[in-house]
Amino acid sequence: CNSMKLSSVNPLVGDIMTSDVSIIQAEASFNDAAKTIMDKQFSHLPVVDKDNSLVGILTAWDISKAVAKAEYDLVKDIMTKDVVTTSPDEAIDIAAFKLDSNNVSALPVIDSKKKVVGIITSDDISKLLARRQ
Amino acid sequence: CNSMKLSSVNPLVGDIMTSDVSIIQAEASFNDAAKTIMDKQFSHLPVVDKDNSLVGILTAWDISKAVAKAEYDLVKDIMTKDVVTTSPDEAIDIAAFKLDSNNVSALPVIDSKKKVVGIITSDDISKLLARRQ
Ligand SMILES: C[S@@+](CC[C@H](N)C(=O)[O-])C[C@H]1O[C@@H](n2cnc3c(N)ncnc32)[C@H](O)[C@@H]1O
């Protein structure tokens, strides 16, 4: 076998996702979002409504874009509403395909009720490849 | 062989890096940086001095942090100066290890004269894993 070894079985999203993901409310301010991104050292925040259901995603890139356009609005005004998601029981290579084909760096992980249970990023997937030394 | 197949040989950074990377001058303004990040759709900008040598890295996360702290300074004031780098002939799994162990999402690719010849991100590495369909 000459292929690069990741593991002997195909891991699932639930095996490598970050469970203690920071989320933000759609009604939060632009500044709240920037503060959360700084404090939590996350570049991607799933956005939820009052019922804690996923309604969007906000990234450091969106903050930077809002700065460039001088549009300092609420999270709901600058977030991406059409979110590509995954679930804990999806295979990692499917999640990697979704990241690639949608040109995004992170997928919120949701349960059947659209509640956010984690996040998986291309950083997490890249880690699978890091040679442990 | 039960391992996930990436390719039959271990690819090099030079094989999958992005060569037409956008860079920014250390003396550029905060707003120039935000505009470049928006226009080029990149989250990570290698920062160069007047001789085009690498002196730092600036990311959308740094822009977001500057917003949170209300510090709208020059690129050189908000960039990360201690940059982890790679070279075109480094193996991908070493680059993945550097990303992981330094908790970063991108590595500028430099030549022997510290000139930036590309960038490699965890997105690029994650793509290796995406099942081509
Ligand atoms: C520590 S990470 C935390 C954010 C989050 N983990 C992410 O996905 O972007 C962000 C910081 O890493 C820095 N950084 C990014 N790439 C770097 C590199 N290759 N070498 C050194 N610092 C880097 C950025 O300038 C930024 O200040």
UniProtKB/TrEMBL annotation, chains A, B:
Keyword set for this entry?
Answer: Amino-acid biosynthesis, CBS domain, Methionine biosynthesis, Repeat
UniProt domain CBS: residue ranges: 17-74, 79-133
Source organism, top-level taxon: Archaea
Q: Which GO terms describe its biological process?
A: methionine biosynthetic process
Name of this chain's protein: Uncharacterized protein (DUF39 family)
Organism of derivation: Methanococcoides alaskense
